[in-house]
Structure formats: C-alpha cells, structure tokens
Amino acid sequence: MPPAKKKPRTYDHDKTSAAVVAQFGHVRDAVRGLDAEQLARPSGLGDWSVAELAAHIAWIADSLAGGLARPPAAVAELPAVEWPFATASLAGKIDEAAKETLDGAPLPELYDRAAARMAEALEANPGSRVLDLWIGAMTVADFLVTRTVELVVHTDDLRRATGLDIPVDRQALAACTRLLADALALKAPGGAVEFRVPPFAVVQCVEGPRHTRGTPPNVVETDPLTWIRLATGRTSWAEALDGAQVRASGERADLSALLPLMS
C-alpha cells in the first residue's frame, strides 16, 4: 500500500503577519540610514543597484496592501508550497515595478507609506480572503508565508551588498525555511533522503528506498541561511559543500540537480 499523502504544513496566520510586519520594519530602519554611495552600489542581483533592491522591498509591502484593496478572487488556485516554482514568469514585471516604485518618492517616504498601508490592510482582512494576484489567486494566509521568503531573502541580499547587520525576525526565518524545504520535497518526492535544517525543518525527499527506523542512509543537513541561499541560487551546492556549510552523507545525498528551487 502506498504511503498516505502528507498533509500540507499549516502556519499560524497571526504569527506570520507579525513576522512580515517586523521584518519589513527591520529593513525600513536599515534603509533610512543608507547614504548615496551605499544606494548606488551594485546589489548583486542582475543590474539592480542597492536603491532598486530597496525599492523592490518597499514594493513587496505596498503591493500586498494593493492586492487587499482589490476585489477578492473567488477561489484560491495556488498553495504556498507551489509558489517558488511560479515566480520565474514574473521577473520582467517585478523589475519594472521596482524601477517605477523608486521613481515614486524618496525611499524613506516609500517605506513609511508602505508600512502603514500594509499594517492597516492586514488588520482589516482575514487570512481566508483570496487575493487576485499576477501569479494566481492565493489566500492571504498563504501569500503572507511567501512574503517571509521575499523579505528574508532580500534582507540577506541587502546585508551582503551594504555590510549592514540587519536583524532577521526568527518567525520570518522559520516560515521561509519551512516553505522552501517543503518545496524541495514537492519537487523531489520520496523518502530516500532526510533533509534537515535545524531548528526549523525536516523533510523526506528523493525517490528511492524509504527508511523506517534508525539512522537514515542518506542525510543532508545545513543551517537556515545556507539553505535559503541554496534554494534561491545565491550560492551553489559545490560552494556550500566546499565551505562545510552543508553536510551530506549517502549515495543519494547530492541535491545539486534539484537546486536552485527559484532564482
């Protein structure tokens, strides 16, 4: 008999909302202190400058508020765990949105406005509301989990581009880590490899013999930040192995062909 289908992971909507607001606040505080030289630096993301990266992060919050201002969709089409695989088609639109956002007002003003709009919209709408989005209809609750990925990933980008030590909210980091780990298990279903990202996630993935007791024959373990960088193409499997940031044991423990999940 085939194993029972695993239920999708659930997230506490109130905690996720608070994490999104908190992480956006951390970035807002950092961006306020950036000078012209720092803003002009390359972000490491294509041809974006740090200013354009910062504008994109402001857009993440503002677009959430904008989505909540539109009439809701009837039925959710896209669960959170499938979102990482649907983002590539939006690259052009997102690039245009970042540039348009930056032209709209000075960055501190953009951040203050976006923070206020997002907080007000989240307070007024339940997690069950269905958003009509570019990427497909999603519940507010699921979409907020994807916002933790966007905010944590781009906070890390901003830290590396500027050298600033921007805090990362623990709840946001946990949700981001878990969503990307579950996406890996969705991309490579199976039970041959136990993939661990302590303290936040453990998933079974990759086709092959499933272990039932004792130490799994194939184990991959890494820390949350390394996993997020691997999943989003910020670092490669080979680089992470060479830097001892990933521990992989077993003949099926090479995940390089599955990465990145999104870029």
Summing up helix and strand content along with how strands pair, one would put the structural category as: alpha+beta
End-to-end distance = 37 Å
Shape, principal axes of CA atoms: globular
Strand order across the biggest sheet?
Answer: 4-3-5-6
Sheet of most strands: 4 strands, mixed
Radius of gyration: 19 Å
Summarize the helix and strand pattern as letters: HHHHHEEHHEEEHHE
Helix-strand blueprint:
Elements: H1 13-32, H2 36-40, H3 50-69, H4 91-104, H5 107-124, E1 130-131, E2 138-139, H6 140-162, H7 170-187, E3 193-197, E4 201-205, E5 219-222, H8 224-231, H9 237-242, E6 246-249
Parallel strand pairs: 3-5
Antiparallel strand pairs: 1-2, 3-4, 5-6
Helix pairs in contact: 1-3, 1-5, 1-6, 1-7, 3-4, 3-5, 3-6, 6-7, 7-8
Structural overview:
With 263 residues, this protein is α+β, with helices and mostly antiparallel strands. It has helices at 13-32, 36-40, 50-69, 91-104, 107-124, 140-162, 170-187, 224-231, 237-242, and strands at residues 130-131, 138-139, 193-197, 201-205, 219-222, 246-249. Strand 1 (130-131) and strand 2 form a beta hairpin. The two termini are 37 Å apart. Helix 1 runs antiparallel to helix 3, helix 3 (50-69) packs parallel to helix 5 and helix 3 runs antiparallel to helix 6 (140-162). It is globular and about 55 Å long. It has nine helices and six strands. Helices cover 50% and strands 8% of the residues.
